[in-house]
Amino acid sequence: MRTQDSKPVIEVINSGIVGETGAIIELENRAENALATACLAKQARRCLYIYSRNLDPTIFDKIEFITAAKKIALYSRFAHIRILAADSKRIMQRGHRLVTLARTLSSCIEIRRPEKQFRSLRQTFITVDGQGYLYRRDSERYEGVIDFNDPRETRELDKLFTDIWQRSQVDPEMRKLNI
Fold first, then answer.
1. pLDDT in tens, 108-121
2. Which of 11, 42, 104, 139 is the most core-located residue (most Cβ within 10 A)?
3. HEC sequence for the chain
4. Could you tell me if 25 and 18 are in contact, meaning their C-beta atoms sit under 8 angstroms apart?
5. Quick one: which of 136, 123, 160, 165 has its CA closest to 36?
6. How far apart are CA 7 and CA 152, in angstroms?
7. Cβ-count burial of 160 within 10 angstroms (0-12 exposed, 13-18 middle, 19+ buried)?
8. pLDDT tens digit string along 66-95?
9. Rounded to two decimals, what is the model's pTM?
């Protein structure tokens, strides 16, 4: 796919800068989503919020994303990654490097399970530093959008995330240590 200025989407995603590049980029497939998610995460400095039903391993269990998440967690003592995942059983059955990382860096990375009323939300979204976001209306499909610089929309998603976060609980499935 090409964007309006006829650049390939992959090229536009790779050149996006959080807090600077302001344009909605449409995503159509898994590869674009994985790249966009990793690009956002690589640029995060303070906070990364993730709402996902099952932490899709083709997106969140890729080495590029895991490396970026680890870098955020270690970047500053004020940095944090918050993850809301509704289907922890599915995540734990297949194993997930992000869960392993969260267990290792538990002071910076926290995973919670949304309260029952929010578990039916089908969307997936990621926000970074109050500036950029990625949004998919349906977590089972890869059509979505990314914008590296839209503080207004990012604030709306951050508000939704915070509302759900405040009503969520630490998921014991995610905290178990396999010894």
1. 999 999 998 888 88
2. 139
3. CECCCCCEHHHHHHHCCCCCCCCCEEECCHHHHHHHHHHHHHHCCCEEEEEECCCCHHHHCCHHHHHHHHHHHHHCCCCEEEEEECCHHHHHHHCCHHHHHHHHCCCCEEEEECCHHHCCCCCEEEEECCCEEEEECCCCCCCEEEECCCHHHHHHHHHHHHHHHHCCEECHHHHCCCC
4. no
5. 136
6. 26
7. middle
8. 999 999 999 888 899 999 998 877 788 778
9. 0.91
Q: Please name which of 121, 149, 119 lies closest in space to residue 134, comparing C-alpha atoms.
A: 149
Tell me which residue has tokens 């690009």: 39
Domain ranges of the chain: 9-171
Q: Which two tokens stand for residue 14?
A: 């790779």
Q: Which residue has the tokens 């919020």?
A: 49
